[in-house]
Write a structure and sequence with these properties.
Layout: E1 3-7, E2 12-17, E3 20-25, E4 31-36, E5 44-46, E6 49-51, H1 53-64, E7 68-73, H2 76-85, E8 90-94, H3 98-101, E9 104-106, E10 111-120, H4 130-135, E11 140-143, H5 152-155, E12 163-166, H6 169-177, E13 183-187, H7 188-198, E14 204-221, H8 227-243, H9 245-250
Parallel strand pairs: 4-7, 11-12, 11-13
Antiparallel strand pairs: 1-2, 2-3, 5-6, 8-14, 9-14, 10-13, 10-14
Helix pairs in contact: 1-8, 6-7
Signal peptide: 1-23
Protein name: Arginine-binding extracellular protein ArtP
Domain Solute-binding protein family 3/N-terminal: 31-254
Length: 254
Amino acid sequence: MINWKMVSGAGIAVCMLAGQAVAVECPRGGTLIAGASDYRPYQKVDGKEVSGMDFEVIAVVLDKLGCGLETQALPWARHLKGLEDGNVDIASPVSKTEEREVFAHFSSPYVDAQEVLFVPAGKEGEYSSLADFFEKGGKLGTIREYAYGGEFNDLKDKYASQIDDTDSQESNLKKLAAGRIDATLGEVFVVSEDIKRLGFGDKVVGSNVIISSDASYIMFSKKSVPEEFVTAFSEQMQAMKDSGEFDTITAKYK
């Protein structure tokens, strides 16, 4: 295990490894640049205002390492190109792929992108699995052409008559709140944000049924951020998870 401590005001993280202190300086003169797009609640872009769970977590981790954070609203294609060229330092939340590993370092897992079954309030524990939901005659609202994970793909043909396709998650949530469907699927943070926005907090809740769970990461440009700094970042983020500080931040977005 690597232990990290701050050198006050120096913009340097100090790693205590095998009894030796190794300094890791903040890249880009102390303030790293993260691209932003509107993917709520992870990232929120309202005009010139940028906020969201990603930037709250990243800013706290960077602050513990003596670094600052600047955000820039960017379309995703420009964001990736900026990361490849070293003009942007950070992208999140992302999946780790071989193609991206050519130009980027990845943190330790940031969050698990859990796809869960959302049901009417009071029915959180009614189903043990998606198969159980269908076997009990449940009608599921889905988004047309959306790539759902887990057991959905094994069940969708058998229970096609119980699946109601629509063009948006908002439509599914409105149908669920009105009792026109019995459940819908979605990523827990994203759908929870939609529920808050629509004012359905007393009508729709996430159930105990997890359809899939895939790790998301924070990605750093290889051209602008050294690998040892990403290691420092990951260690500090893990320390926050161990202490409960990470959950305190992310719980606000569920």
